[in-house]
Amino acid sequence: MRLIAGLGNPGTEYAFTRHNMGWLCADFFAVNHDLGRPQEKFHGEFWKWNDVVLLKPLTFMNSSGISVSEAVNFYKVELDDVLIVYDDMALPFGKLRLRAQGSAGGHNGLSSILGALGSLHVPRLRVGIGKAPGSMINYVLGHFDGEEREKLPDILKRSEAAIEAWLSKDIQKAMTVINAEHKAEAETENEETPPV
């Protein structure tokens, strides 16, 4: 059994905010795979598809661990078979990064999950939202601007491909595929940046 959890906050006021990037990725995946309407359980909404569970915690972001741990325990999912999809300010907007483990990096939703599961060895797909120009809270809870909205369809398509790579390959091969794009673009940016 595999579990994919897209993180976000419930409520219409949080729809299309940067902090709900994980929810958007989960919704996009569900629509494109014709998963239909979600069921409600585990303090969240979820879809069951073959041996995959796609989960959107309905707890607020900081309590995401309640929902994810309930689903993990119910389905007896190994932690290596859990993928957390969430927004990350440490990456430029739209960049994807897959990791097999690590700290929460200051993300409260991921921190809640790692604490509830009692391990740092939980795979995660980080979706970049860029650095906050001012208040971090106002930025992550702010709505996408016009330029970001234009980029969203492509980001969601690439997130879907990344999730499918994680489902179909072992983690190291999936990381090679998904992170290669980020590495290539970073190297290009470095080459084009003149020395200061």
Highest CATH level, the class: Alpha Beta
Query: Beta-strand level of the residues, as a percent range?
Result: 15-25%
Kindly state the mean pLDDT as a whole number?
92
Quaternary state of this entry equals: single chain
User: If helices are DSSP runs of H or I spanning 4 or more residues, what is the number of helices?
Assistant: 6
Sequence of secondary-structure elements: EHEEEHEEHEHHH
Helix coverage percent? 40-55%
Q: What's the CATH superfamily, by name? A: Peptidyl-tRNA hydrolase
Main sheet record: 7 strands, mixed
| Rg for CA atoms | 16 Å
**Overall domain count:** 1
CATH topology: Rossmann fold
Low-pLDDT runs: 186-196
Structural class estimated from helices and strands? alpha/beta
- The CATH architecture name reads 3-Layer(aba) Sandwich
Strand order of the largest sheet: 2-3-4-1-5-7-6
